[in-house]
Amino acid sequence: MTDADNRQPGWRFWIDRGGTFTDIVAQAPDGRILTDKLLSENPEHYADAAVEGVRRLLGVGPGPLPSGLVETVRMGTTVATNALLERKGEPTVLAITQGFGDALTIGWQSRPDIFARQIVLNPPLHDRVIEIDARVAVDGTVLQPLDEARARADFAAAHATGYRAVAIVLLHGWRWTADETRLAEIAHETGFDQVSVSHEIGALIKLIGRGDTTVADAYLSPVLRAYVDRVGAELGEDTPLLFMQSNGGLTGARAFRGKDAILSGPAGGVVGMAGTAGEAGFDRVIGFDMGGTSTDVSHYAGAFERSSDSVVAGVRLRAPMLAVHTVAAGGGSICRFDGARLRVGPESAGAVPGPAAYRRGGPLTVTDCNVMLGKLRPEFFPPVFGPGADQPLDADVVRKRFAELAVEVGTATGRLMTPVELAEGFLAIAVQDMAEAIKAISIQRGHDVSGYVLNSFGGAGGQHACMVADALGMTRVMLHPLAGVLSAYGMGLAAVRTIREATVAVPLATDQEPRLADRAAGLEQAARDDLTGQDIVFDSVETLVRARIKYAGTDTTLDVPFAGTEAMRAAFEALHRQRFGFIAADKTLVVDSLEAEATGRAGSTSQAATRSIATSSSDPGATIAPATIRMAGADHVTAIVRRETLIPGAVVDGPAIVLEQTGTTVIEPGWRATTDALANLILERVMPLAPLAAVGTAVDPILLEVFNSRFMAVAEQMGEALRATAYSVNIKERLDFSCAIFDRDGALIANAPHIPVHLGSMGESIAAVIRARGDNRDGRGLRPGDVYMLNAPWNGGTHLPDITVIMPVFLEGEAEPAFFVAARGHHADVGGITPGSMPPGSRTVEEEGVLIDDVLLIDEGRLCEAETRALLGSGRWPARNIDQNLADLKAQVAACARGARELETMVGVFGRATVEAYMGHVQDNAEAAVRQVLSVLKPGSFVLEMDDGAVIRVRIDVDTDARRATVDFTGTSPQRDNNFNAPRSITRAAVLYVFRTLVDDAIPLNEGCLKPIDLIVPEGSMLSPLYPAAVVAGNVETSQAVVDALYGALGVLAASQGTMNNFTFGDDARQYYETIAGGSGAGPDFDGADAVQTHMTNSRLTDPEVLESRFPVRLDSFSIRYGSGGAGAHHGGNGVVRRVRFLEPMTAAILSNRRRVPPFGVAGGAPGATGRNSVERADGSCEALGSTAEVQMQPGDVFVIETPGGGGFGTPGGD
Question: Are 499 and 82 in contact (CB under 8 A)?
Fold first, then answer.
């Protein structure tokens, strides 16, 4: 350890190297606080912004710093993040269990954008795969000993071609570590410089997340180390360097790893937000960090919130990270007009070229809006622009560009808007986006933010804080003296932290206490050793152990302090009730994992440092004349003051502008700023927020985007409420649900789907309720407090497990509903001949479960529990777990209630006429986007044969002048005597999905998408079956065939795999269900994607390690089926091969398609390979299976599923 105690006080530097700016806070030996802000990328003037900033503040030139001059440099950096985003890490080899070389490429098998015809998957970080010949069972049994000679030869071959980084990931290696440890030794002996080992990275179950994290560590650590070494060399070896980790703790330069560096910069902001708010006396805080590229929001109520499962740049990471929600709305977010709506982001102008005002030819951005309104004034902004980096913001070009945009908007819409109105509109949209991000981490999780303070920071935070607070109903905003550089200041407040995690997966039971205590003590000591092993002298060291507990069979864990069994049980139940509103007393609790955190404090800053800021400027300069600035829709003569002139107790009433070196704070009208004893600026709303002026009902391009966002936000909030309060795994974790809002006639306004087959079909359910009950047709009518439920396939249902709950929304004093809200959820079981209500051999709908056809669930506020229990318990095959059904139905009601409240609030703000008008306008906007596509679409027809001989025949006629289309399924096979019948609502959902995907823009998904389309589906056909047709395969299989047929008729996309490959297995006690990915179809200018969910599903797969720990099966391999994609000028995507070995007798079933008829190619492209189902028996025999089959599996038998590839597009070898 260094003898830090004998060192004289030196300079302290706290640095945040962000995407646009690098912020630097320095504390001089005499306690003064100095700051600087530099462009992160300015290669014409310096190589590294952090080093340049240190030298500028010290007033020294190039070369190492003298010993003792600097006491510490603490830095958060985006170097690792940028390398990840730009895929510029170290070329890496993945060494993984044989049979799983493609596992990380396949990942969860879901696609990132459900409406993209061209599926773009993030490429894996590794460039080369070595499959390791070794296998250990879930219980530690060695199934295949490690072949060291082969591994050594493979490592040597990779090293010889230039690879120096390797990630070692073995199945169950988190627990059984011997093979990984030996492979690491061999890799070091072979000459690899960077060896990342999965059980050292994180001893946590889940191959995919742990594997991705290990690869990311190997990929990023060399880049990070090179940067750390370069900074260290430039500053000199006598300058102590600490770096911020994603978990909110600092670490020494030598211990800084790639896996812990992803959120290095934002973590400093969260630490700074919490620390400064605590010093100011606030214990409940929302962090609002608005920078140049994006806005990070965070929640703090006495403890840091962390997540151990994150996705960054498409990489699944299992490493502790502070919970930060990012929205693509920053100062550099691009502002544009799409012909109907004003749009903000998600694209950013970045540091280069930056906003239009930055003198580099950039586009209009949020920053330019504030320049246009006068909130940002060139005379008070750092003059760092232009070729010489010495010119001010260019306000003239901003005004010119907004004037040009006003002409463009007026020409397109006929609505005359001034440049100032456009700038205000863009800001309103950005504020709406940021407010919704804050709702996602607070209100949607049950926190009432009205009692919180908004701690605003970041370079652009102060410009928007009052408006964001108003949008959330918050009345207090805090801005630290260093708010503009708080992420950097947070480095100074942070402690050095090390965290160790390990999966334990044992029941929470008294007899397990000794085992748990031993594991906790071991982890605690390991974390402490990691901490004290760094070259740092600490003033104090603390340790804390947490347990992550969950209900058996679920994945949702909650963190509680590690203690005795009963104490942890009580803590878990209290937290679960608070978060989700219920506890499941009949379910076993499991300690999923333990986390030990060691914290060391040394040389952190404190309140004394912040006090010195207020007195650091002895010459505040001349008084600034007021200026006319646009705020709250009007021009105001606005006071402009410098922050350093505000002594404790100073009061500034809005409208006002507060200037400081690191940012600008806008005090909106009705707000008052007071300086507290620590020089914090505390903003409070002192006048009630003025009611919104009547905005009218005519379409406005600003409000069109605002309402589009707000309507979707209501549906998303409903979804979050349903997920939070649901009981079953299907809804809570597999996210098999959708929520939507509708106008008074049942037209879809906004749908927040996770499962595409739900798209638009709920509207048919609303229509069924209106038809049956509207105008008192049932003798009772629709009444306030009513809630209805249905799953009937001919009344908007899909299949019986999908129960839709519908709530009419009545405004006060009105007799008819103004709106409707609905929530659809997939229930684990609703009866039928097989558990799970997905029988492969059903012939009638009764065999699939209990039929619910527009039944009252709540009668004028009274839950009809007895009636509902009786219904679910009726029939020949009743529901098997009615208590769970009722719990999920109550959660669906809660979701609908949330939606109803949000719509009522919206009416209160804007007025009913405006809300109803914009429900129409958003439909018109979507309709116009689809009509634009129809104007250039060519007609066509297609006949698609399914494996059972059924035919889907479709003809699409297009009237390009009227911009309308007719989709006619006349000629399609009559309804089947099997279960491949698709209710009309599914056919409609498939049509909506296809036409939505033809629009290459983020348009709202609503009824307008189908208004220019006439749909003809013959009644009694397999696409509009009549009672009592079975429908379970129609939902999962025929829906995929309809989509492919539509694309075939349009000629725009080759067939994708055309099936969901529904695989189930189980016995009386255990059941399992999954859908398996395949290849996607190629298009005219792109190849199909491999191993991905397509079209009407997007579900994830259970992780291999979790699957083997829960069920008596072994996944022998899971790989891409190379060569299965159809050839063409653009080839189809490849399917997969999945081999499941059974260890106990069980029944297995497959429900699939495209085993006989291949996925077609287009324009000369070859078809994809058909899929294959088979069973390899333990005695060596092999049984070929058809598209649908049910078989008895014995120990040693292997069920093999080979999924289809996608079709090719264009003649192979052609253009």
Answer: no
Cα distances from 242 to residues 14, 73, 194, in angstroms, run: 10, 6, 21
Q: What is the DSSP letter of 1034?
A: I
Nearest-CA neighbor of 1139 among 1107, 1175, 1163, 1178?
A: 1175
Backbone angles phi, psi at 1025, to 5 degrees: -75, 160
What span, in angstroms and rounded, lies between the C-alpha atoms of 723 and 3? 53
- The residue assigned the tokens 């209900």 is 551
Task: Round to the nearest angstrom and report the end-to-end CA distance of the chain.
Answer: 66
Whole-number Å distance between alpha carbons of 999 and 964: 15
- Tell me the C-alpha distance between 461 and 474, whole Å: 15
CA-nearest of 353, 286, 332 to 426 is 332
- Residue 421 CA to chain centroid, in angstroms? 33
Half-sphere exposure in the Cβ direction for 887 (13 Å, CA): 21
Helices (H), 726-850: 729-732, 761-773
Q: Where are the beta strands (DSSP E) in 6-78?
A: 11-17, 21-27, 33-39, 70-77
Residues in Cβ contact with 1094 at an 8 Å cutoff, skipping those fewer than 6 apart? 111, 119, 1040, 1056, 1057, 1077, 1078, 1080, 1081, 1206
Taking the C-alpha atoms of residue 1127 and residue 1167, their distance in angstroms, rounded to an integer, is: 7
Q: How far is CA 925 from the centre of its chain?
A: 26
Total number of residues shown for the chain: 1215
What's at 978, amino acid-wise?
N
Chain-centroid distance of CA 494 in Å reads 27
Cβ atoms within 10 Å, residue 448: 10
Q: How far apart are CA 807 and CA 803, in angstroms?
A: 13
Estimate to the nearest angstrom the gap between the alpha carbon of 95 and the chain centroid. Answer: 29
Q: CA angle, 1163 as apex, 1157 and 1167 as ends, to 5°?
A: 25
- In sequence order, the β-bridge partners of residue 787 are 858
What are the beta bridge partners of residue 365? 334
Q: What is the mean pLDDT of each run of 10 residues along the chain (1215 residues)?
A: 50 87 89 86 86 92 88 90 88 98 94 92 95 97 97 98 98 97 98 97 92 96 92 89 92 89 89 93 92 86 84 85 85 91 87 89 96 94 85 95 96 91 94 86 72 90 94 92 88 90 92 94 93 83 93 83 95 83 80 92 56 42 83 93 91 93 89 94 90 72 87 89 78 82 93 76 90 90 95 91 96 92 92 86 94 95 94 94 90 91 91 94 91 90 97 96 95 96 93 90 83 96 95 94 98 97 85 92 97 92 91 96 98 98 94 97 97 98 95 97 98 78
Q: What tokens were used for 75? A: 């830095």
> How crowded is residue 625: how many other Cβ atoms within 10 Å of its Cβ?
7
Nearest Cα to Cα of residue 1053 among 1062, 1044, 1061: 1044
d(CA 754, CA 99): 31
- Contact by Cβ (8 Å): 1208, 1165: yes
Residue 1113 Cα distances to 173, 177, 307, 567, 1129, angstroms? 18, 22, 30, 35, 41
Q: What stretch of H or E contains 189?
A: helix 178-190
349: exposed, middle or buried (Cβ count in 10 Å: 0-12, 13-18, 19+): buried
pLDDT in tens, 739-793: 999 999 999 999 886 677 887 788 889 999 999 998 889 889 999 999 999 999 9
Distance of CA 315 to the CA centre of its chain: 12
For residues 465 and 286, what is the distance between their CA atoms, to the nearest angstrom? 11
Q: What are 515-536's pLDDT values in tens digits? A: 999 999 999 999 999 988 887 7
Nearest-CA neighbor of 808 among 774, 834, 761, 846? 774
